[in-house]
Amino acid sequence: MLGGSYLPLATPASPLPMLPPNDVEDVLSCLPQALLRVGPDLCVQWCEAGFAAKTGVTLCPGSTLLDALEAGRNLDALARAIREKRAWSGHVITRALRQVRVQVKPSHTDGSAGAWLVMEPSGVDDEGAFSQAVREIARAVGESLEVDRVCSAAVVSLVRCAQVRRAEVFLYEEDDATLKRMAVSDLEGLDAPLDAFDPSEDPYRQALALRQPQLGIQRGYGDAVGSVFAAVPLCAPRRTVGLLLIYKEQGASFSVRELEMWSAAASQLAVAVENARLLREAQAALRVREEFMSIASHELKTPLTPLKLGLFAMERRIASGQPVALASVLKSKRQVDRLAGLVEDLLDASRLELGRLALDSAPLEVGQLVAEVVDHFRHAFERPFTVDVPHDGVWVLGDRDRLEQVLVNLLENAHKYSPAGAPICVKVGRTAESARIQVQDHGIGIPGADQALVFQRFYRARNVSHRNFGGLGLGLFISHSIVKMHGGALALRSREGEGSTFTLDLPRMPAHEVRRLPRRVLVLDEDVHQEATAERTLRAEGFEVFTVQSGAEALRKATHLPVDLIVLSTSATQSAVGTFLETFATLPRARPVPILLAGDERPWWAQENTELCPRHYRPDELLAGVRTVLTREKRRTLTPVESELPLVTPA
Fold first, then answer.
1. Backbone phi, psi, residue 202, to 5°
2. How far apart are CA 451 and CA 493, in angstroms?
3. DSSP per residue, 502-536
4. For residues 52 and 29, what is the distance between their CA atoms, to the nearest angstrom?
5. To which H or E segment does residue 140 belong?
6. What local confidence, expressed as pLDDT, does residue 515 receive?
7. Which of 282, 353, 480, 618 is deepest in the core (most CB within 10 A)?
8. Distances (CA, A) of 186 to 165, 168, 247, 254, 455
9. What pLDDT shows up at residue 600?
């Protein structure tokens, strides 16, 4: 009787066989194979004392093989061989995801059903294969630092040098967190669809999360069902760049030492991938810099040449005592302004890169800002502009100068890339959370492949020639950055040859904060004492008041924000009123401004429905008139539908 754990076997009918020597256990412990006796039901009848140490599988009499081995085709073949009392040899996978080689020897003892199983682990610690594979990867890296070629060289080296049937490399995309297959050793002729890899499944997820290799069972790749693979993370010094998947030949497994070696190789591959990407980024940066230097040199030289010629001509005329034409001075001034704009763009790009571009935010009414900027373009260029703003104000918290810079950039691009006479439409509206500005042109448009890149620094679409369209390629980059600093978004919708629409969304001020903003009143009265009385009364009620006897000066002073009401004295001189009305008509404004007349009777030039309050000013009468006009204006211009109607982007 053999030593170790034992369950009594059936009593043989024939004479007892010769018993083995008592020291047979000592001999078995010297062999790499482990011995096991099972019944037809796969229950263990006997196993040698060192079985677990040799195989890594813990079994004891009374337990079953099904508790220790993974279900699969080979386990089914093993069970059939035991039941059919025939020999079998193959490999099975343990619950610990290690492969073991199994030989089945049917029991020939009369009346004793079952079989002897001889098991041995099939993993190897091949440092020679590891060294050879690493040398080949290093040689491939030395020949090329292209990511694709480095990954392809790695999987080919693994298959050629090690006991690896197949290898794959998955890398994270540079712009997102998805894994993409970059190289595979032997896809041809195999059933290996690209969507078979799911990084959310184990062991891939664990390997990426723990930055440690994990073992798994291969599924769905040809006839090698049931083999073991290793998911080895590609760990660069600062981040995990992807996964190396190594599939063993059927019958081979991974030892702990082997996984350590391939983890070290994977780290070298990860560093090579990172270096390749850094080199590619550096080369791209150098190309951008060279292209920028070429464009910048051209753009800076373009205004310098006519400026130099113009100044030289003016110098000669002054030296000869001849007058200098105003047109020559204006031409030179335009070139100086152009140079100043280019330099300012370069400075803004530098400030953004260093994080030194600061915002000076304050409440800002979007419709008024758009009206002023468009009015400037309407006077500067012979082109139709249309402005569509809601009746009520759309308020944001922002830096007026920087947001004006964004609008100017968008309108300049719309003007530059549109044919002469083509209209440009600017629309202001609101969404649930944002104030929205849309600038639409009917120009050359932007190709689809370039639309995702137009907000990058120094980028210019490929249908834009430097000869016909100047610029450094910084305007949209700066605009996009400024909008992001405001917590907003700048988007593009375009079709080549049909035009572009830029959509600017900015966070709206909360309604309760808008209600707390002071209403703005402009008081125009020729009597300084009466003017002071009106100012004192209105300020006491929380109004923001502008009081200047010159109508033009008053309106220019109040131009940055919308004026809610004008208090106009009817006793002002006709010339003062005329100057006021003329200036008021020419200054940009987003919406009509109501007027409260102060005097004994309505003048001839006023409309019949214009509100009238007494003058000399009395606080109760003045405030009653102001509230009446503001309430009537609100009812006239703001209905519940208009106040909540979102701005719909046209399809």
1. -75, 150
2. 8
3. EEEEEEBPPHHHHHHSPPEEEEE-S-HHHHHHHHH
4. 12
5. helix 127-143
6. 86
7. 480
8. 9, 9, 11, 20, 41
9. 82
Among candidate residues 265, 235, 275, the one with its CA nearest the CA of residue 141: 275
Tell me the two tokens of residue 316.
Answer: 């000669």
The CA distance from 364 to 381, in Å, is 26
106 CB-near residues (< 8 Å, 6+ apart): 81, 82, 85, 86, 87, 115, 116
pLDDT for res 646: 35
- Determine the number of helices (DSSP H) and then strands (DSSP E) in the chain: 17, 25
Q: Is 176 exposed, middle or buried (0-12, 13-18, 19+ CB in 10 A)?
A: exposed
Are the C-beta atoms of residues 523 and 545 closer than 8 Å to each other?
yes
Angle (nearest 5°) at CA 169 between 155 and 260? 75
In angstroms, the CA 176 to CA 357 distance is 27
Rounded (10°) CA dihedral 260, 262, 267, 272? 160
In this prediction, the residues of the chain whose per-residue pLDDT falls under 50 are 1-7, 9-11, 187-195, 220-225, 466-469, 639-651
According to the model, what pLDDT value does residue 293 have?
67
Separation CA 427–CA 140 (nearest Å): 57
Q: Specify whether the CB–CB gap between 222 and 191 falls below 8 A.
A: yes
For residue 411, what is the DSSP state? Answer: H
> Distance between CA 597 and CA 612 in Å, rounded?
5
CB count, 10 Å around CB of 491? 15
**Contact call for residues 225 and 260 (beta carbons, < 8 A):** no
User: Nearest-5° angle of CA 554, CA 558, CA 561?
Assistant: 165
One-letter amino acid identity for 364? L
- Separation between Cα atoms, residue 524 and residue 629, nearest integer Å: 17
Spatial neighbors of 46 by CB under 8 A, at least 6 apart, are 2, 4, 5, 6, 7, 36, 37, 61
Confirm if 88 and 34 have CB atoms less than 8 A apart: no
CA-to-CA distance for 115 and 201, rounded, in angstroms? 38
Strand pairing report for 565-569 and 595-598: parallel
Neighbours of 95 (CB within 10 A): 13
Tell me how many degrees the CA angle 152-155-157 measures, rounded to the nearest 5.
105
- Decide: helix, strand or coil at residue 37: strand
pLDDT tens digits, 15-71? 555 555 666 666 777 787 888 889 888 899 888 888 888 887 888 888 888 888 877
Alpha-carbon distances of 461 from 405, 448, 456, rounded to whole Å: 21, 10, 11
* Three-point CA angle 521, 526, 532, nearest 5°: 55
**């004793």: which residue's tokens?**
112
For the stretch 65-120, pLDDT in tens is 888 887 777 788 888 898 888 898 887 777 776 677 889 998 876 556 788 899 88
pLDDT of residue 554: 57
Quickly count: other Cβ atoms within 10 Å of residue 295's Cβ.
18
